[in-house]
Design brief:
Blueprint: E1 6-9, H1 13-25, E2 29-35, H2 42-46, E3 49-54, H3 65-74, E4 79-81, H4 91-99, E5 103-104, H5 109-116, H6 118-127, H7 143-153, E6 157-161, E7 170-173, H8 179-194, E8 199-203, E9 209-217, E10 222-234, E11 237-243, H9 250-266, E12 271-279, E13 285-291, H10 298-305, H11 309-317, E14 334-341, E15 353-354, E16 357-359, E17 366-370, E18 377-378, E19 385-393, H12 396-409, E20 411-413, H13 419-426, H14 429-433, H15 440-445
Parallel strand pairs: 1-2, 1-4, 2-3, 4-5
Antiparallel strand pairs: 6-7, 6-8, 9-10, 9-12, 10-11, 11-14, 12-13, 14-19, 15-18, 16-20, 17-19
């Protein structure tokens, strides 16, 4: 059994750079693809080979399956790593790779289909005894059916697109008279974003934590790498992630880890993925969705476990068994990640343009995953993420101190970024205390976060 000789990275930006670095350490040659406006991008410079696959519009480049497969074939690439976003959760792409004799570094097409259909995933896991939020058992086709389900489970409810994610095709409905408009808006948004207008209905639970568990499977054995807390969000988009969670006792951690492994086994999961849950104030755990790819926030798990998740993806795709057993996973310390976006820190409007100075922070326990550099032009055609700032400390208090220091050191000039926003969060007393939920940012913006009571019971960060 051997590792691949050459891998094509079907992505761009920081995740492409991250994959290239893992490949170099494994002795694997890399091929970067790029659109015609990204010839000078860092991932292109770092790869052993590069090939332009089309114009800036992602539909004609990073989402162009025939062009990507042709690039893999002409460069004699044995495998393709899709990263996250773009084609990473496209089952047709995974199947097309197999048909072309190229290994897709990720889960099986069937895994991706189940994960991409949230309503179906709920059905599959509910039948296996995994707790789900009360709601519809499958896709809801008509407004009338949605009304009946909402009346049965009680308002407020949340309408979600069965396909896709990132907060698109999602509406909170607090009263029955709001449902008709929300239902049709969610359908239209889902159709436009994902080409699928199927939606489902769930009970809306306020003041929740968004907790996810990293899993890895070689097809025979499944392990989990502990939980990540992704509750700091804006409009269902994650902004800050940390591991472990401040609410996780040893008992809770064992429970949610075992649920994630059960879910992966129920799906016959292969390779790397994430099982996402919501947790209420009584620490009731409910399955939310499966992400069938490497997550943006995977570095915080790497920092506390010492496991290189990208390398494990590659090894498993090459046919190697898991490098670890569950009892070898012993999380240590505390890690936090901030997503640094090219956005106005107040209005969150994208701010593309040329970076005139890029000076990342350093020092012990500080990691920056980025493809940015001085002189680089942040394009307007793609996601606004330009860097991930990750810190690791012996506990949460030290990790927060490192993050505040690193944010102060991080210099990006020429464009606006979300660094000032992150500074506000890390200086907020409720965040420092771990007293937050998924509506923290909305309440912070409205000036009513501190209300004299605990939203969640915080435990020792070492569990």
């Amino acid at each position: 059994m051997k590792l691949f000789k050459k891998i094509l990275i079907a992505n761009r930006g920081e995740i492409a750079v991250r994959i290239i670095r893992a490949c170099k350490e494994l002795g694997i040659r890399t091929v970067a693809i790029f659109s015609d406006i990204e010839k000078g991008s860092l991932h292109v410079r770092l790869a052993d080979e590069s090939i332009c696959i089309g114009p800036a519009n992602s539909r004609h480049s990073y989402l162009n399956i025939p062009a990507i497969l042709s690039a893999a074939e002409v460069t004699d690439s044995e495998a393709i790593h899709p990263g996250y976003g773009f084609l990473s959760e496209n089952p047709q792409f995974a199947e097309a790779c197999a048909t072309s004799g190229i290994t897709f570094i990720g889960p099986t097409p069937e895994n991706i289909r189940i994960g991409g259909d949230k309503a179906k995933a709920r059905q599959v896991l509910k039948r296996r005894g995994i707790p789900v939020v009360p709601g519809s058992d499958g896709p809801v086709i008509s407004e009338e059916t949605a009304v009946k389900i909402a009346q049965k489970i009680g308002f407020p409810v949340i309408i979600k697109a069965s396909a896709g994610g990132g907060g698109r095709g999602m509406r909170i409905v607090r009263e029955e008279q709001e449902l008709s408009h929300a239902f049709h808006m969610a359908q239209r948004e889902s159709l436009a974003a994902f080409g699928n207008n199927e939606i489902y209905v769930e009970k809306y639970l306020p003041s929740i934590r968004h907790i996810e568990v990293q899993i890895i499977s070689d097809g025979k054995n499944v392990i989990h790498l502990g939980e990540r807390d992704c509750s700091i969000q804006r409009r269902h988009q994650k902004l800050i992630e940390e591991a472990p969670s401040t609410i996780a006792t040893a008992k809770f951690r064992k429970k949610i880890g075992e649920l994630a492994v059960r879910a992966a086994k129920a799906m016959k999961y292969h390779n790397v993925g994430t099982i996402e849950f919501i947790v209420d104030q009584e620490q009731n755990v409910y399955f939310m969705e499966v992400n069938t790819r490497v997550q943006v926030e995977h570095p915080v798990t790497e920092e506390v476990t010492g496991v290189d998740i990208i390398k494990e993806q590659i090894r498993i795709a090459a046919g190697f068994p898991l490098s670890y057993k569950q009892n070898q996973i012993k999380p240590s310390g505390y890690s936090i990640e901030c997503r640094i976006n090219a956005e106005d820190p107040e209005k969150f409007i994208p701010c593309p343009g040329r970076i005139t100075l890029f000076s990342p922070p350093g020092g012990p326990g500080v990691r920056v995953d980025t493809a940015a550099y001085t002189g680089w032009v942040v394009p307007s055609h793609y996601d606004s993420l330009i860097a991930k700032l990750i810190v690791h400390g012996k506990n949460r208090e030290e990790a927060i101190a490192k993050m505040k220091r690193a944010l102060d050191e991080f210099i990006i000039e020429g464009i606006k970024t979300t660094i000032p926003f992150h500074k506000k969060v890390f200086n907020h007393p409720d965040f420092i205390r771990g007293n937050f939920s998924t509506d923290f940012i909305d309440r912070m913006s409205n000036g009513n976060v501190s209300n004299g009571h605990k939203i969640f019971e915080v435990v020792d960060s070492q569990g």
